[in-house]
């Protein structure tokens, strides 16, 4: 293996993948180790299919576009990671690669980005990180993939935490013993190293990591603010990365948070974006509605008046005519009179007189109405009917009372509603309670019948009206019929309150509503800041039965004799992205103080770059002159099989799978 | 398994790749399956593997925290089984829909006997 060849270093972490050449200062490529396959937009596909039919010339183009839609997106190529968060796929389960299709996609992405497109194979050796104690099956598949599919010349497998340790050793030359705490995305490792060798049999892994922390916060916020679910999803990681910290003394901090004034002083409120227009929109339209209604009423009144006037004019004309007819009769011009009567379709004199009086009275009535003072409008009527506060009680107080009563009613209604829905589901307390009541009712009547030889004796059940409520409680299809009176009362209260509120100061109301809207769109982030990362120390908080970090350190140290314990405790090294939590070092110092013997020494060192040190350490190893000795070449792979790999200081130990 | 067939058909041809495909039953193996396979391999018992490195179960009694606020919780609601720290939390629990209650319980890893 020529030593001068550049080496491609891949730190294949379950959260982030870092790829770069071994002679560069930092990785050329960093991406979230996920991929997504956008679901094809069916509608679009159909459209394109019809287009293609219509235009045979454009077929290929349309098809290609179709394909582009369904193409898998990897890492930084994912256009909108928030939109596809639910469909993100990872090759990892915990820190082990289990899905090789996904891993192949990731490798395709890596090698394309690193400029291998157009070349015939991957000509450079690769340094690749793998899980501590990676199962042989997984390594075999990795080797198969690299050697068979990509024709890689050689590969070297190592453990990220140990690479990071090697990088750290640059500053601490000569230190050969350490207790490495590696904080990963899905796991946390406690790795004892003595005389430069990892003590594999005493390594322990806590299956809690950054993923669990983020997920825990997400679930907590989701249940605290069910309405803001969509807004929450994208903000959780940022909250964990930037605003969470590990408490020095968790119990003490919690007690502080329990104090209201401490809470008020330290709570972090996150204002979600919201639209203030929509908040006051309802109010505005209500006002406009009222205005419109008034206009409409005026117009109607106008029309009515005009019609009345026209009618009056008509009536007066008719009256004139009838008077003339009457005059004809009085002047004894019978012939002319008869003809006129016929013309007006009036049969005789009597009818004419009747008609005359009705028209006269009608005109009189209309004129009277017009001259009378305008009647109070219906609205005024309603206003008069509106209940007024009782004597001696200020309006505000009365309204407040009403409001209280209304809320009480609403609450009762809601409780009933909830009980009903709960009863509908099995295994809820309400459903169980219902079954209990039914069975006791049944048992009681059964017992009674037995005692009295079938004679029902009246035990007084039903004498009291409230006794019957028990049947209401167990009726699943209770449709609120018992609370009609309550509903009516509720309506009445609402009418009164609406009336007085509408007449109240609208501007102030609107301002209040806007403020409420802003508050409704706030997330409170308080105890969560320490509660969420605390699961590293107390995995029981998320229902994980494994020992917490401090307990685990104590456990691992106890596996060694006292002298070696001291050597390990003298150099505790923190690495991994999750080691960046504020307060972690202080907390670990406190825990070490508690678990180490009185007055014994210990020291904790933090990685200078927890996220990158593993990659840098791997590069370091690729630079040593005898690097080629730790490379597993293709010929070795073909000879020894996929499980085989060259051991080195930062690698797992090789053990062949026994053949049976 | 269907996933394997679809993705191999949709594979983009890249120059640096040889035609290669895993046997279908190897494309995706859950960790549990790998564990079972290792168990059947008759490894020497002292050989540490991925699955022997799990952290031991905690021997310290788990502290009890309120499901809602995370504060130390001296009380448990016998109906919903939620833990709570004070009266206000108890009051807020009374109006909680059952899916939220169940959510809190599952986050804590609580599984009831009734299911």
Automatic annotation (TrEMBL), chain A:
It is found in: Nucleus. GO terms for biological process: DNA recombination; DNA repair; regulation of macromolecule metabolic process; regulation of nucleobase-containing compound metabolic process. Pfam families: Actin. Residues 365-395, 410-432 are annotated as: Disordered. The keyword Coiled coil applies. The keyword Cell membrane does not apply. Its main location: nucleus. Residues 378-388, 422-432 have a biased composition (Basic and acidic residues). Component of the chromatin remodeling Ino80 complex. This is Actin-related protein 5. It comes from Drosophila albomicans.
From TrEMBL, chain B:
It is found in: Nucleus. This is INO80 complex subunit C. One of its GO terms (cellular component) is Ino80 complex. The keyword Nucleus applies. SMART domains: YL1_C. One of its GO terms (biological process) is chromatin remodeling. Residues 64-93 form the Vps72/YL1 C-terminal domain. It comes from Drosophila albomicans. Keywords: Nucleus, Transcription, Transcription regulation. The gene is LOC117565141.
